[in-house]
Design a protein that fits this description.
about 280 residues; two-stranded antiparallel ribbon; about 45% helix
């Protein structure tokens, strides 16, 4: 176990922000997630203080980057134009949301699945795929301040070779619908090395965008989501139905990202979360 002080971090908001599909709240002070082939539980233990069910070495090598802890989110919020009342309100409402830097292959497949899907249905398909061909994960021994996990068994998201070996008929039965051929092609191209996470990470934003939109079944929104949530390209601004609604209602059809060249994606997350959840707190 390791205990860390983390400013600007809200477990529940991050779990509900729609970035990742395998992070869940157990109760108001505990979250669990499966990522990078590991099970992790996070417990809120005090003001801005959190315990992680892992070693300090694992925290520093994996979870510190995953939670984007080297970025000053308070400074990012301070950069918002005070005349932009909507974005200012969204940032205040979404305080504690950080951009998760996720596994490239899992994020790519998850966001291919996400096209015209609700978050619960995406989560269901991702879990089915993991159980079908991902390896079973050992859950570490948990004691106070941690609590009982939500499930008895957990499975890693499959490696490209594992998903590529899954019969197409079984992939279709995971509820992914018309996206099954897109997923199968992506798994094949990652498995045979045509798509390589390290090579993709070395590309400029423009070249990475071209490489992703060159994939079968990947359009503008999905490519921008992959760039934001797997490659930490926080200048990207994915536009889905929620963001389009915000743009039409509050920004005359277009949100100007130019004041936020390196942080537009963070602003997008504040806006997305605010628009989805603000009426729940009225």
């Amino acid at each position: 176990m390791v205990t860390v002080k983390i400013p600007f971090f809200d477990l529940a908001k991050v779990a509900d922000s729609g970035q990742a599909f395998r992070i869940k709240m157990i109760d108001k002070d505990h979250a669990e997630l499966v990522a990078f082939g590991r099970y992790l539980q996070i417990a809120k233990t005090g003001k801005d203080t959190f315990a992680f069910s892992c070693s300090g070495k694992e925290f520093n090598s994996i979870w510190k980057g995953y939670l984007d802890l080297d970025r000053n989110y308070e400074a990012i919020v301070s950069s918002i134009d005070k005349n932009d009342r909507y974005l200012s309100a969204a940032a205040e409402f979404g305080k504690g949301i950080r951009i998760l830097k996720q596994d490239v292959f899992e994020t790519t497949i998850s966001y291919i699945i996400s096209q015209r899907r609700s978050i619960p249905s995406i989560t269901t398909s991702v879990e089915r795929i993991s159980k079908l061909c991902g390896r079973k994960i050992a859950v570490p021994e948990l004691c106070d301040p941690f609590v009982e996990p939500l499930c008895k068994e957990y499975y890693a998201f499959p490696a490209p070779e594992e998903l590529n070996a899954l019969p197409f008929s079984e992939l279709e039965n995971t509820g992914v619908g018309y996206r099954a051929p897109y997923i199968a092609r992506a798994a094949e191209e990652f498995a045979n090395g045509k798509l390589d996470p390290e090579s993709l990470a070395s590309l400029s934003d423009n070249d990475l965008y071209k490489a992703l939109t060159g994939m079968y079944g990947v359009g503008t929104k999905v490519a921008n989501c992959i760039m934001l949530f797997a490659f930490a390209r926080t200048g990207r601004f994915p536009v889905d139905v929620w963001i389009k609604r915000i743009e039409d209602r509050y920004y005359s059809g277009h949100f100007d990202c130019s004041p936020y060249p390196d942080t537009a994606g963070i602003m997008q997350q504040f806006m997305f979360y605010y628009e989805r959840r603000k009426d729940s707190f009225d």
